[in-house]
Amino acid sequence: MSRSAGLLVALVVTLGLAAHGRDRLDAWVDSTVLPPVLSEVGVEVRGRDGTLLRAFPVEDGRVRLATRLDQVDPRFIAMLIAYEDKRFYRHGGVDLRATLRASVQAVRYGRVVSGGSTLSMQVARLLENSGTGNVSGKLRQMRLAMALERRLSKDEILTLYLHHAPYGGAIEGLRAASLMWFGKEPKRLTQAEAALLIALPQSPESRRPDRHPDAARKARARVLARLDLAPDLRQPDVPLKMRNMPQDAPHLAATLRRDAPLVLRHGTTIDPQLQRQMQALAGRAVAGQAAGVSAAILVADHQSGDVLAYVGSPAFNAENGALGFVDMTTASRSPGSTLKPLIYALAFDEGLVHPDTLINDAPVAFGRYAPQNFDGQFRGMLTVRDALTLSLNIPPVLLTNELGPARLMAGLRRAGTQPQLPAGQAGLAVALGGVGMSLRDLVQLYAGIAQGGQSLPLRTDPNRAEAALQRFVSPVAAWQVAHILAGIAPPKGAAARAGEIAYKTGTSYGYRDAWSVGFDGRHVVGVWLGRPDGTPVPGAFGGALAAPVLFEAFDRISTRRTPLPRPPNDALILGTANLPEPLREFRSRDAVFAAAPDSPVVTFPPDGAVLRRSGFGVPLKLRAGTLPLTVLVNGAPMITQLNARDAVLPLEDAGFTRISVVDAQGRSTSVEIRLD
Question: Which residues are annotated as catalytic?
Answer without folding.
Answer: 84, 337
